[in-house]
Amino acid sequence: MSAASIIEMVAIAAAAADSKGGEDLVALDVSQPLPLVDAFLLVSGNSERNVAAIADAVEESMLEAGHKRLRREGRTESRWVLIDFGDLVVHVFHEQERVYYGLERLWKDCPVIPIEPAVVTSTSGDVVS
Questions:
Q1: Nearest C-alpha neighbor of 1 from the set 66, 67, 65, 87
Q2: 1: Cβ–Cβ under 8 A, 6 or more apart, which residues?
């Protein structure tokens, strides 16, 4: 898949995660060590409910954009939800699981993909550009 397509997929997923309070969003280019996946998006939620809401929003936004989910794991417990869209795998973590598993440390040699905010909202809820 082209770099522009991956950046677009990351932006869609990141905007959805952000809309539900996702924190510490990091996108990694894992295309070199993993031939079947181009990017990971890592997101933190502050509770199981928040993790589930973030995962559901990401899945819904990606489907609306034409990206079908291939696999989802962890939704029942909502401590670490993995959503596989083929070229992009989204990891939505409870804060504690993210620290424990440390995927950023594991994939530290992979380049970071800049996350382009489609729309940023201020803390008051007003849309700003």
A1: 87
A2: 38, 87
pLDDT in tens, 8-41: 999 999 999 999 999 999 999 999 998 889 999 9
CA atoms lying within 13 Å on the CB side of residue 30: 21
Asked if 24 contacts 54 with a C-beta cutoff of 8 angstroms, the reply is no
80, 39, 111, 79 alpha-carbon torsion, rounded to 10°: 0
Pairing of strands 88-94, 39-45: parallel
Which structure tokens are listed for 55? Answer: 């995962």
Identify whether the C-beta of residue 87 lies closer than 8 Å to the C-beta of residue 38: yes
Q: Is this prediction's pTM over 0.90?
A: no
Decide: 34 and 84 in contact? Cβ < 8 Å.
no
